[in-house]
Structure formats: C-alpha cells, structure tokens
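Propose amino acids for all 213 sites.
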C-alpha cells in the first residue's frame, strides 16, 4: 500500500461498479489514515483530517469503519500482510543457504521501509499510541517474523544450551527492530538499507555459534 498523494475517483460518469467504487473509497481512507498518522501522530489524528485528505464524506467513512482505531488497525493489518508476503517470497527455497535467505529477507524488508516512510513511521512508531489492540497486532507480527527467521537460522536445530529456534529468531528480530526503529524515529530512512550488511554479519555470528555448539 503506497502512501503518496491519495488518489481520487473521476468526477461525473464513470464505468466503475458500486463494488469498485467502495473498494476505491476504502483504499483512499486507509492511505489517508497512514499519511495523517505519520504527519501528526496517532493521538492528534482525527477522522475529520482523514476525510479531508481522502476527499470522502463522514457518512462514507462510517460505512467502512467503526471509528478511527478500526481504520488504523485495518491499515496496519493490510500493510503487514503485504510485507509478510513479500518477505516470505524473498526467503526462497528451503534448501538455499540460510545466510542467503536471511540476506534476501533483510534486503526486502529494509528496502520496503525506506521506500515508504509514512508506513514505516506509522507502523513502527505510532502503532504504540493506538491502544492495546494495535500493540498486540504489532507483537503478533514480530512473532511471525521471529518464527520464520528462527527456523531459517537454526534449520530447526536447538541452540546450544537448549534454546529453541523461536527464541533465536526473537533475538535476531529484536536486534533488527531496535536498529530500524531508531532510524525511523530519527527520520533517517536512507540509512535503513545500509543496516543490511551489519545485520547479516550478526546472523552469520549466530550461525557460527550454532555450528560450534
């Protein structure tokens, strides 16, 4: 879900069906929500400002969403699912070298965040101001990443000392999250792809530890 200027529907006669119009309205509202939250912060975001950016009526907004949080959570879910799909595709074949697979995933993840600053700020920073439901979603996404990365890094093997693959994945994802969030908070989006080399080196060290265990 890109977040440039929010597109508008053509005025007057058009060939869009009612379902297509509703789908377009929904996308515009989600894009506007991301933009406003990125610009103003979740707490300061109002439905009125989202409507102004989307050029959509209040009545139409409430045909799609119950309230501001519902719209925000929907935007989070859709953006997260898209990113997860991209990362799963980047993993490639299970028999590829683990470090190669992780490298591809990091390239995809960091590149996507650098290309969409509004999404990065909204869902890595502002998500924590959107209530317990939003934080729970954020943590659930991290768990999905941790499970995938842990399985790739360890190949299903236990870490020396009995630590399970998911824990190893959490350690890697925690390091990625901390570094990425710091860059986003500082507005240093161009720095995100440059984290890749250091993070791959970290995972290489993890793999070395497993092999020596």
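Proposal:
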């Amino acid at each position: 879900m890109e977040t440039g200027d929010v597109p508008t529907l053509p005025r007057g006669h058009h060939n869009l069906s009612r379902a297509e119009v509703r789908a377009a309205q929904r996308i515009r509202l989600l894009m506007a929500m991301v933009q406003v939250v990125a610009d103003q912060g979740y707490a300061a975001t109002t439905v009125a400002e989202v409507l102004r950016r989307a050029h959509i009526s209040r009545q139409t907004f409430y045909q799609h969403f119950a309230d501001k949080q519902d719209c925000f959570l929907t935007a989070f879910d859709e953006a997260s699912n898209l990113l997860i799909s991209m990362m799963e595709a980047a993993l490639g074949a299970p028999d590829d070298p683990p470090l190669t697979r992780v490298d591809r995933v990091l390239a995809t993840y960091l590149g996507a965040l650098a290309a969409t600053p509004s999404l990065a700020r909204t869902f890595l920073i502002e998500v924590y101001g959107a209530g317990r439901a939003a934080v729970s979603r954020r943590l659930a996404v991290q768990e999905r990443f941790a499970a995938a990365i842990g399985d790739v890094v360890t190949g299903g093997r236990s870490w020396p000392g009995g630590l399970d693959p998911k824990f190893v994945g959490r350690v890697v994802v925690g390091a990625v999250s901390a570094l990425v969030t710091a860059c986003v908070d500082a507005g240093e989006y161009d720095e995100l792809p440059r984290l890749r080399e250091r993070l791959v080196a970290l995972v290489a060290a993890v793999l070395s530890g497993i092999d020596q265990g």
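The mean pLDDT is 88. The two ends are 43 Å apart (CA to CA).
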